[in-house]
Prior knowledge:
The chain is built from two helices and five strands; from the N terminus they run ββαβββα. It is of the alpha+beta class.
Amino acid sequence: MPLPPKSEPKIFQILIRTHQTTLFFTVPPSTTIGFLKEQTLSALNSGLNEEEDIPPVKEVGDFELCRCRGIKGKDRNADVQREYDILDEPESTIKGIKLANWEVLYLQFKDEEGQPLQIVASDPPIDDEEDVEPQSTVPSSPPVDKGKRKATEYDEEDSL
């Protein structure tokens, strides 16, 4: 028996990446690219552009949202060339341009003359060798020995 067709998600998680920052947006599929750009502008002007050398932006025309079309190169750690497509139709919807749930978009800033700058974004590492185990604030319980144990007086009282 064939499986029923997969239903469209009712909410999309869209990630927008620049430098070492990722913005997360939870939006319905009817969201337009123009609205995503407005929300990105709002996030950038909330203090983000003061960090990590992110260029200052004043309006949505100061940057473009781009989709990664492909990666040229054999090794993920070696120098790879990414190709991007600019999402330049502000009235297009997420569903209309077939963005996937959890898709990563990239910011391409423009210089003072309106010329596009190179996209600067670093993807988080897959294997982070510097991961530190989070310290628990809950006291750990003593180790539990497997197998049989001797009955205590307390156990004998409970069984009566």
